[in-house]
Amino acid sequence: MDFKHELGVDPEQLADDADRLFDRMRRLHSGTEATARAGSGNGWVSVEYGSSSGVQGLRLDPRAMRMDSAQLAETILDLIHQAKEQAEAEERERAEALLDSGLLTDRGLVTEQLRQATGTLRENLERASATIDRVRALLRP
User: Which parts form a coiled-coil structure per UniProt (predicted)?
Assistant: First the structure.
């Protein structure tokens, strides 16, 4: 069966695209994680956060110990959230750069080809099902 003709999609091209996608995903995960730092305005508290490992470091200046405990806790949590958002944003940018660098550049075209292939495949399955039903009817006594 000529899949390219029958389905309107070149299976070898799809396999090559999938290989490139998985290769890029492997490179994305094997690389160093994105790391971000956030610090308080007065410089007394700072946090380092890794996109996959979470909080990597917390630095407290001795003067931070003079802060009210609730204020210190709130400052630490705020800085963790800031650093986390920065690290995750950097990680997203890396992923987008890897995934958008030439892979499936015309997404509309790919979507339309997949939609057509799905329709053709569905028609072929319906025809095959009808043929099986006719064969069964012939085999019944």
Answer: 73-100
Superfamily of domain covering 32-104 = Nucleoid-associated protein YbaB-like domain (3.30.1310.10)
Cβ atoms within 10 Å, residue 49: 26
Question: The whole model's pTM is what?
Answer: 0.53
Across residues 42-55, what is the average pLDDT? 92
Instruction: Kindly provide the b/e burial profile for residues 24-37, where b requires at least 16 CB atoms within 10 angstroms of the residue's own CB.
Output: beeeeeeeeebbbb
Give the pair of three-digit tokens for residue 114: 């997949």
Query: For the chain, percent helix, then strand, then coil, each to nearest 5?
Result: 65, 15, 20
